[in-house]
Design brief:
single chain, 150 residues, mainly alpha, 4 helices, 77% helix
Length: 150
C-alpha cells in the first residue's frame, strides 16, 4: 500500500505502528532474533562440515600428534629395556647388536662374493674370510670388555 506521497507503507493487513510497541510485539521480536542466531549457528556448522580441506588438516594433525606420542612412548620403553639402571647397555642388548652387525656384514660379503665373476671370486673369497675373521675378533674383544666391566 502507498500513501499520498507515493511511499510504501506496508501491506494492508499490517498492524498500525502503535501495535509494534506492545509487549507481545517485543516478545515476538526477541523470538525472531533468537531464531536468526540459531539459523546463523546452524549455517556455520554446516559450512564447517562441508569444508573438507580443514577437516582433513585437523584429522592429519590429530593423527600426527597421536603417532608422535606413541613413537616417543615406545622409544622410551625400548631405552628402558635396553639399558640397565646405571644407563649402560645390558648384555642382551650388546649380544643382539653384535649379532645384527655380524649378520649385516655377512649379507654384504655374500652379496659381493656372489656378484663377482669366477676369476674374481677367489680373490674376494679371501677378502671375505679376512673380513669375517676381523669382525669376529672385534666382537670377541667387545664381549671380553663387557665381561670385565660387569
Amino acid at each position: 500500500m502507498t500513501n499520498q506521497d507515493g511511499k510504501h507503507t506496508g501491506s494492508p493487513d499490517a498492524p498500525p505502528n502503535d501495535a509494534l510497541d506492545t509487549p507481545e510485539a517485543a516478545q515476538l521480536q526477541a523470538d525472531i532474533e533468537r531464531t536468526r542466531e540459531d539459523l546463523a549457528e546452524t549455517v556455520d556448522l554446516l559450512a564447517a562440515k562441508l569444508d573438507v580441506r580443514s577437516r582433513v588438516r585437523e584429522q592429519v594433525g590429530s593423527t600426527v600428534a597421536t603417532t608422535r606420542t606413541a613413537a616417543v612412548s615406545r622409544l622410551r620403553t625400548f631405552q628402558t629395556r635396553a639399558t640397565g639402571l646405571d644407563g649402560r647397555p645390558t648384555r642382551a642388548t650388546i649380544s643382539t647388536a653384535g649379532g645384527v652387525v655380524a649378520a649385516a656384514a655377512a649379507v654384504v660379503l655374500v652379496r659381493l662374493w656372489l656378484g663377482s665373476s669366477s676369476h674374481q671370486r677367489a680373490r674376494r673369497h679371501r677378502a671375505v674370510r679376512r673380513e669375517l675373521r676381523r669382525t669376529v675378533r672385534q666382537a670377541q674383544r667387545q664381549a671380553r670388555r663387557q665381561k670385565r666391566r660387569h
